[in-house]
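If you are new to this repository, start here. Below is one unmodified record pulled from the training split, so you can see the exact layout before writing a loader.
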Amino acid sequence: MKADKVERLYRKYAKMMLCAAHSATNDPQLAEDAVQQTFEKLLRMEDRIKEEEEKMTGGLLILMTRQAVSELFEKKTKAVGMQTVDDENTPEAVDEMGDILGLIFQKDFVQDLTKSLGWLKEKYSVPIILRYGYEMNNDEIARLLHIDKGKVCVRIHRGMKKIREYLEKGGGL
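And here is the target side for that same chain:
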């Protein structure tokens, strides 16, 4: 039974997860590794995933995949740090290190953003986090949340308005 559920989740979400991982890394092999790592984790926590809650399940799997990308980049960072001085000066190594550092900063930013928006209703905070934290476009967010693009725009707009009102009243993020 456990394998059946994971297989259904794989058929339903793997392509979307691979796209999210690839957009974060532009490395097809690393993206595939991240998706595989996510499904390995999913096997251990399968009983806590509710298939019928599509929005939450899809969002959770995308976030887990992005986390796996971050973890794989961190491993890569350590490996890059062990290279010889000559290897570190190649343009590819410099570009790769910039990508890795960018993703690490992005991970910290997303965690801070998520924690800061804990007071905001989920229907507003999730699109904002996906848009500004994960740099997803409105079409990607709409597909992920299974809502139309117009709703994504409205929820982001209303969420930002609520944040502005909250800050004007003296609340802090």
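Two things worth knowing about this chain: The CA atoms of residues 52 and 58 lie 11 Å apart. The chain has eight helices and no strands.
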